[in-house]
Amino acid sequence: MLGSTGSIGVNTLDVLSRHPDRFEVFALSGATQVELMLQQCVRFSPRYAVMASVAHGQQLAQRVKDQGLAVQVLHGPQAIEMVAAHESVDSVMAAIVGAAGLAACLAAARAGKRLLLANKEALVVGGEVFLDAVRQGGARLLPIDSEHSAIFQSLPDDRSTWAHSIDKIILTASGGPFRSMAPERLCEVTPEQACAHPNWVMGRKISVDSATMMNKALEVIEAKYLFDVNPDQLEVVIHPQSIIHSMVQYRDASVVAQLGTPDMRGPIAYGLSWPQRMASGAAALDFRSLPAMTFEATDAHDHPRRFPGLKLAWEALRAPAGTCAVLNAANEVAVAAFLDRRIRFDQIHQTNLATLAAVAVTPPSCLDDLLALDEQARQSALAVVQGLVR
User: Which end of the chain is more exposed for a tag (fewer CB within 10 A), N or C?
Assistant: First the structure.
């Protein structure tokens, strides 16, 4: 379980706790939340617990020792990669936020694991390099994002038929907390407002991405790689109720959709149990009490000004390979700066645009190339942020 202390990790462990006869937790990894990791170690008794830094690893090791737990505490990126590729592991839930999770995802892919991908950046940043690792390692890639899980559930089991039967893939977006806000007021948005999603309980970074709809831009990129479709076959519609999680339109004009309550335990349970299904703990839909379901085009009046980052998905996909990695890095830097109150909400997009313009992309062919490109983009984005702060 990579990223066990985050929102996806906590939900995954909740699902696992409902099926102790089917799953055993081999390893947990986290970043900074030592006390929560300790609680998870007490509850699930993993063989390994890995923290991102030496300091947090030492803190956890002492707490584990005090508790008398038989858990081996490790720290650092190499330890995370080790547990992801360990021979005792069958399935890896990849839920480390951002590009930081790429190396561990690659390690799991090369080791041929059943890889439950909640870290969209593995595909956004890794692109064909990541897919090559999946193919060469013989890994099974299962999407956990609610939208991509919905698409996967709406597609035929026979992947060979996809190219000939799919007309387009339609990703739904809630529109976040500012769907109806006047675009000229976005400069006033606070981190607290941006993190208050109307439907989903998520981490701070992904909540801001949902508010800007950069999350949807990244999901468009992920969908292109997951389902091997042309960018022109990808569409986004705003569906404020978050009941339909995404749809597939076929050549005969039929549309197959996946519905459910806005609860990540649904797609998590599906990924864990695929091709079977098992109880998730999520509430079932009650169609007798559902509100009316509505939809809005993303090119409707004011939406392009309110969500200017969405179109960057298609632009990045049509640009040289590696451009998506630059976009992701710029956005991570910009969102962090906004959460630290260093730049305004509307300057997130400004930072992303300026970084894309500043970085000359050489198509990456390996992890080192990707990491170098990621670092170059981050430095450029930091320079843009510094200019905005002045």
Answer: C
For residues 260 and 335, give the distance between their C-alpha atoms in angstroms, rounded to a whole number.
29
> Taking the mean position of all CA atoms in its chain, how far away is CA 322?
18
205 vs 215: CA distance, rounded Å: 10
pTM: 0.93
Provide the percentage of residues in the chain whose pLDDT is more than 90: 92
The neighbouring-strand residues paired with 297 are 237
Return the closest-CA partner of residue 73 out of 100, 88, 87, 54: 54
CB 56 within 8 A of CB 79: no
Distance of alpha carbon 177 from its chain centroid, rounded?
19
If you compute the radius of gyration of the chain from its CA atoms, what whole number of angstroms results?
20
d(CA 241, CA 257): 15
Which residues does 177 contact at the CB level (< 8 Å), separation at least 6? Answer: 193, 194, 196, 197, 198, 211
What are the pLDDT digits (tens) for 184-206? 999 999 999 999 888 777 788 98
Token pair 């190219």 in the structure block, residue: 163
Cβ atoms of residues 69 and 42 within 8 Å: yes
125-152 mean pLDDT: 96
Q: What is the predicted pLDDT for the residue at 65?
A: 96
Dist CA 113 CA 82 (whole Å): 13
Is the Cβ–Cβ distance between 295 and 302 less than 8 Å? Answer: no
- 65 three-state secondary structure: helix
Across-strand partners of 257? 247
Closest CA to 349 of 313, 376, 321: 313
Beta-strand (E) ranges in the chain?
A: 27-30, 48-51, 72-75, 91-94, 114-117, 140-143, 166-173, 234-238, 244-250, 255-259, 296-297
Q: Using the 8-state DSSP alphabet, how is residue 161 labeled?
A: G
CB atoms within 10 A of CB 241: 16
Query: What is the CB neighbour count within 10 angstroms for residue 138?
Result: 11
Going by C-beta distance under 8 Å and a sequence separation of 6 or more, which residues neighbour residue 179?
238, 240, 296, 306
SS3 111: coil
CA 295 to chain centre: 23
d(CA 196, CA 365): 39
Above 90 in pLDDT, residue 145? yes
Peptide bond just before 308 cis, omega within 30 deg: no
CA-nearest of 270, 382, 268 to 329 is: 382
